[in-house]
Structure formats: structure tokens, C-alpha cells
Amino acid sequence: MLSRRGFMDRMVRAAAVFLAGFPILTVGKRAFAQSGEGALRVFSAKEGGYVLMDKVVKNKEEWKKILTREQYHILREEGTERAFTSKLNDNKEKGVYRCAGCGLDLFSSEHKYDSGTGWPSFWQPIAPENIGTRPDNTLFTRRTEVHCPRCDGHQGHVFDDGPKPTGLRYCINGLALQFVPEQEIKG
Ligand code: FE
After folding, report:
1. CATH of the domain at 113
2. 120 CA to middle of ligand 1, Å?
3. Is residue 106 one of the residues assigned to a domain?
4. Inside any domain, residue 88
5. Which has the closest alpha carbon to 156: 175, 181, 128?
6. Residue 147 in contact with residue 156, Cβ under 8 Å?
7. Is 171 known to be catalytic?
8. Centroid of ligand 1 to alpha carbon of 89 (angstroms)
9. Is the residue at 174 inside a domain?
10. pLDDT digits over 120-166, tens only?
């Protein structure tokens, strides 16, 4: 039979275990919610590190409300703008190029170069996690399509004729991008 003291000891120990376990449980639940389906771990220029972001999913009508006709054609129908039509092609300002659909940071001015093709070109994305690729076998060629991993918006293609150090050329539609100057990123 338990003595009164022994009983109290057990109660205190049980309470301590319960209280100790509680924050772990809470943190665990939160971590689960953040890393659940639909959340992405991506780089944020504003935060200067990796963050968890929810995916952006919209239907056709919702996209049409927030995008211009040309942007919709490129981002949601894998269209291509005419070469040398984007003012971002010649942009040499320091800053970040975000997805025009969802605002995810995709490219940095640090990795931009003049490819002479007439489309904004980069030799790498701002972070590997911030860009998605898939094979594209249309137009009788094998190309690699590039898209935003957050909203799945089409951005352009990546080719292997780029400059060092990667040798890659991310050939991107200016209309699929939104440029944010360096001084506005933190603001
Ligand atoms: Fe996006």
C-alpha cells in the first residue's frame, strides 16, 4: 500500500512529466502543421534565410483577376513573350526578381547576365529550392521547363549554354517576373 508521501511523490512526478511533455507536444504539432503538405521551405531575400511558405493554388478565374492577359498566357499557359520586349531584359539594377504570380523570390541581380537572346537571363536561381524544372518535349526538341515551385507558374526554360560557374542559362520571360530593387527588399 502506498504511503501518503509516496503517493504525493508520484503525483508530483506525473505532473512534472506532463508539464515537461506539453511544450514538446505543442512544438511538435506546430512543426507538423508547418511542414505538412502544401508548405515549402524556400529562401527569402527579405529574411536573409530559409522560411516556410504555403503553396499558392488558384483556379483559372482567380488567376485572371490578378494577372494581365499576357501574364496569364505566359504563367498559366506556358506562353513566351517576344524577344527584346521586356524592360527587365536590360535591367542592371541590384535587387531580386520575384514570381509575378505569387511573389516568391526566384532570381537575384547577382546572377543576371546579358545572354543576347532578348530575354532576362540568369546563370542560377536565388536558391535551388526556389525554382522547379520538368522536361518539355514540345516544339520537336527536348528542353527543360522552369517554373515557380510555389504557384507552379511557368517562367521559361533552362539551357546548358550559360556562363561559368554553372554553365546554365535560365531564359526567363520578363512578364513572369516582378523586380524589387535592393533598397525595397527589407522594407
Ligand atoms: Fe509563383
Report:
1. 2.170.150.20
2. 17
3. yes
4. yes
5. 175
6. no
7. yes
8. 19
9. yes
10. 999 999 999 999 999 998 878 899 999 999 999 999 999 999 999 99
Write out the residues surrounding ion ligand 1, Cβ under 5 A: 99, 101-102, 104, 148, 150-151, 153
Ligand 1 centroid to residue 65 C-alpha, Å: 15
Residue range 63-115, pLDDT digits in tens: 999 999 999 999 999 999 999 999 999 999 999 999 999 999 999 999 999 99
Amino acid present at 64: K
3 within domain boundaries: no
Cα of 55 from ligand 1 centre, angstroms: 9
Q: Are strands 95-99 and 39-44 parallel, antiparallel or unpaired?
A: unpaired
- Residue 8 — pLDDT band, cuts 50, 70, 90? low
Domain count, the chain: 1
Candidates 99, 102, 148, 171; catalytic one: 171
Residue 138's pLDDT is: 84
The residue range of the domain holding 101 is 58-185
Distance 90 CA to ligand 1 centre (A): 22
Q: Is the pLDDT of residue 31 over 70?
A: no
- 54, β-bridge pairs: 39
CA distance 48 to 50: 7
